[in-house]
Write a structure and sequence with these properties.
The chain is built from two helices and 22 strands. The chain is mostly beta strands and 288 residues long. A nine-stranded antiparallel beta sheet has the order 7-8-9-10-22-19-18-13-16, with no helix packed on it. Strands 6, 11, 12, 14, 15, 17, 20 and 21 form an eight-stranded antiparallel beta sheet that branches. Strands 1-2-3-4-5 form a five-stranded antiparallel beta sheet, with no helix packed on it. A hairpin with a 3-residue loop joins strand 9 (121-128) and strand 10 (132-140). The longest helix has 6 residues, at 110-115. It binds 6-O-phosphono-beta-D-tagatofuranose (TA6). Residues 53, 66, 78-79, 156, 179, 205, 235, 237, 261 line the site of 6-O-phosphono-beta-D-tagatofuranose (TA6).
């Protein structure tokens, strides 16, 4: 069955053998296999029972990135609610040689309404091709709404790769904000990236602004490319040894991934009533 749907998980299988697994909890893609090899990192200590956001895979960050900084988001937890709510399976969009594609949706339920008062519509489309995974977040501001919807969105990819060898390009020349700096003032001061290839051999938590929308993630003998649309910024994160303080991180888990996260996180998307916005990423495995 190309699309298998249980009460907790949707599994996509492409005719050429690639697979993807999406938990309805947070619509977190927790597995993406191409040529039999897993491409995403999920901590073996991640809670998969809906008690907390998944430590790994592709969590969806919406409507705020990091701790809330907009008055509309003041009651929200870090990275918003999309990653910690149970979504609904909506429909199969496509099921053929080109790809297997499903749509999932999240309605404002009572819990969301208690922490977030803005009307919105939210759907997520996941498409699996032979060597490729696309994930698109669709945000709508209902026509009945009286004001613009202001939000941030980000796709928090945990890419399985050796963190002491992996490199990301092309970020050279971009402004970035270094969240590992000690003071708020230093965090708010933009730096300029001078490296042709960025590594995460030391603790890294960098928010690149107005980036290229095309990133190469490579390590010896392997690589993948990420193309983004409407997600103008990109975050590179790996905590190194600091990762041992993360409760649901497996032992030395930070050695096995790099987060490369396309998002709209500097400033806010402003969506007028009756309008839609789509943020998209396409991950493609290099031929091996
Ligand atoms: O996207 C990078 C980041 O914001 C880091 O600052 C780091 O805290 C990470 O996300 C994980 O956040 P989480 O809330 O999942 O522990």
């Amino acid at each position: 069955m190309p699309v298998e749907n249980t009460s907790t998980k949707v599994t996509l299988t492409h005719p050429k053998g690639s697979t993807a697994e999406i938990l309805l909890y947070g619509v977190t893609v927790v597995s993406w296999k191409v040529n039999g090899a897993e491409r995403l990192f999920v901590s073996s200590k991640a809670s998969l029972d809906g008690s907390k956001p998944i430590r790994g895979g592709i969590p969806v960050v919406f409507p705020c990135f990091g701790p809330p900084s907009h008055p509309d988001h003041s009651k929200l937890a870090q990275h918003g609610f999309a990653r910690s709510e149970t979504w609904k399976f909506d429909s199969i969009i496509m099921d053929n040689q080109a790809g297997v594609s499903v749509r999932l949706s999240l309605e404002p339920n009572d819990h969301i309404k208690s922490i977030y008062s803005k009307p919105f519509s939210l759907t997520y489309v996941v498409t699996l091709a032979e060597q490729q995974l696309s994930t698109d977040i669709h945000v709508g501001n209902p026509p009945t709404s009286h004001e613009a919807l202001e939000f941030q969105a980000l796709l928090h990819n945990y890419i399985r790769a050796p963190s002491d060898e992996v490199k990301v390009s092309s970020l050279k020349g971009l402004s970035y904000y270094d969240k590992t700096e000690k003071t708020e003032e230093a965090k708010a001061n933009a730096k300029t990236e001078t490296r042709d290839q960025v590594d995460v051999k030391t603790t890294t938590d960098s928010v690149y602004e107005d980036a290229s929308l095309h990133y190469k993630v490579t390590w010896p003998g392997h690589g993948l490319e990420i193309r983004a649309k409407n997600l103008k910024d990109v975050v590179i994160w790996n905590p190194q040894e600091e990762g041992s303080k993360i409760g649901d991180m497996e032992a030395e888990g930070w050695k096995r991934y790099i987060c490369v996260e396309p998002g709209f996180v500097r400033g806010f998307v402003k969506l007028e009533p009756g309008k839609f916005w789509i943020g998209q990423q396409v991950l493609t495995v290099d031929s091996e």
